[in-house]
Write a structure and sequence with these properties.
Length: 100
């Protein structure tokens, strides 16, 4: 009987231990975004691109940045949806992008 009480008192679910590990967690909630920003090229880790929003200053990591827009310093208008986090910013799936 004592063993049963001890084992049930210690049971936790994965969502208890990792509150943001599920798709429903705050870190993975999808959010539609539309903003103007600047494409930035980072030379670390083999090089990658981010887009920094003019309004909020938030940094987005595009999942599928078209090759035509892979130029550091390029000003763009973006419409897409966030898909969780990557490094220090949100991952962004781009639906529409245009150079300004």
């Amino acid at each position: 009987m004592a063993l049963a009480i001890l084992t049930t008192g210690c049971s936790t679910t994965e969502s208890d231990r990792y509150p943001y590990a599920t798709k429903e967690g705050a870190r993975y909630q999808e959010k539609k975004v539309r903003f103007r920003g600047t494409v930035i090229f980072h030379r670390v880790d083999g090089g990658y691109y981010t887009i920094v929003s003019d309004g909020s200053g938030e940094e987005y990591y595009p999942i599928d940045l078209p090759r035509a827009y892979c130029h550091g310093g390029l000003r763009v208008q973006v419409h897409g949806v966030t898909r969780g986090y990557e490094r220090d910013g949100r991952r962004l799936q781009i639906y529409d992008i245009a150079a300004l």
